[in-house]
Amino acid sequence: MGKGLKTILSNAEYLAKNGFPVEFRMPLVPGYTDTKENIDAAIAFLKSIGHQKLHLLEYHNMGEVKIDITQGKQLKLGLSRYTDERLAAIAQTFEKAGITPR
User: Fold this and answer.
1) Residue in 38, 64, 58, 49 with CA at minimum distance from that of residue 101
2) What's the pLDDT tens digit per position in 70-90?
3) What does the alpha-carbon distance between residue 23 and residue 82 come to, in Å, rounded to a whole number?
4) CA 100, CA 71: separation in Å to the nearest integer?
């Protein structure tokens, strides 16, 4: 499925370190991208390139309705949205590391 992030991270590092205006976004998908290891890796990367801001994109399941309407074959994840407490805890993890979540 995925190819790995080596090239993407290398390009992002180059752009950030050479003064290009870059913004980083992290989709938060419960059980997939919100693991401690994944969050720690995001923090480590952002700190390594001197970047201090990150847009957190909260998972929503609004698109799943379209699957029913279009009789699509895509599988539904069937995930619940984050509680306010869980979302705040994730944001706080970044804040404690010196990264400003938006």
Assistant:
1) 58
2) 666 666 666 788 899 999 999
3) 23
4) 40
